[in-house]
From TrEMBL:
Protein name per the record: Glycerophosphodiester phosphodiesterase
GO annotation, biological process: lipid metabolic process
Superkingdom of origin organism: Bacteria
Pfam families found in the cross-reference section: GDPD (PF03009)
Residues annotated as domain GP-PDE: 1-227
PANTHER family: GLYCEROPHOSPHODIESTER PHOSPHODIESTERASE, CYTOPLASMIC (PTHR46211:SF1), GLYCEROPHOSPHORYL DIESTER PHOSPHODIESTERASE (PTHR46211)
Length: 227
């Protein structure tokens, strides 16, 4: 089962910050997941639509100017990093799952992954690009057909894993609240991996392992990775 550090090691450092990335790398995570949004011509690594929960700022992130976002405190004196800053700190040392948090992200992420392969030694097989926004994911797939896709769902569809197969995804990424053996078996029959969010306790991990789940997103990679 693959252990994916969710928003970096976000149970141990402020989520989606460079500190959370460094912590995940230090723990030996083989993969890190981050959330990406576009604002003022830049890609920012940030989960929420609004700034209040995770920073000392106010408002909707995508409506802000670069100069405003750059000076915010995202916790423990960390800034909101750009996607390029996160890519630079990882520098090909583990896989990176980039979650497109909305519209206007696919083109810029396609360009930056390409640049990282040229300048920083990343390989195309080290990325997984995922999204709940399936049209944006399809747009990304058209731009970078060589990169694996994660089809996210927060619901259990009537047609189970069909939507992920239709998207040409590599994995179906779903919520622990509804994942069951039927969904896992259906995904596997279609040749898809199943990755489940968000798992921070060993008993949940064991339940999912017994269902044949392929990976988990966790805020506490330290609980699952042997030092
Ligand atoms: O990619 C798994 C997980 O990150 C999806 O949900 O809301 O934590 O971004 P969320
Ligand atoms: Mg996410």
């Amino acid at each position: 089962m693959q252990i994916i550090a969710h928003r970096g090691a976000s149970g141990l450092a402020p989520e989606n910050t460079l500190k959370a990335m460094a912590k995940a790398l230090e723990l030996g995570a083989s993969a890190i997941e981050i959330d990406v949004q576009a604002a003022d011509g830049e890609l920012w690594v940030f989960h929420d639509r609004r700034l209040e929960r995770c920073t000392n700022g106010k408002g909707v992130l995508t409506e802000q100017a670069r100069a405003y976002l750059e000076q915010l405190d995202a916790g423990e004196g960390e800034v909101i990093p750009t996607l390029w800053q996160v890519i630079e700190i990882i520098a090909g040392r583990c896989e990176l799952h980039i979650e497109l948090k909305g519209a206007h992200t696919a083109d810029a992420v396609a360009a930056l992954t390409q640049r990282a392969e040229t300048e920083l030694g990343f390989a195309a097989c080290q990325w997984v690009v995922s999204s709940f926004h399936h049209p944006e994911l399809a747009r990304f797939a058209a731009l970078r057909p060589d990169i694996r896709l994660g089809a996210l769902t927060a619901n259990l569809p009537l047609t189970l894993a069909q939507f992920a197969e239709d998207l040409g995804a590599w994995s179906l990424n779903c919520d622990v609240d509804f994942v069951d053996r039927l969904l896992v078996e259906d995904a596997h029959r279609r040749g898809l991996k199943v990755l489940v969010y968000t798992i921070d306790y060993l008993d949940d991990y064991e339940t999912l392992a017994s269902m044949g789940v392929d990976g988990i997103f966790t805020n506490r990679p330290d609980r699952f990775l042997v030092p």
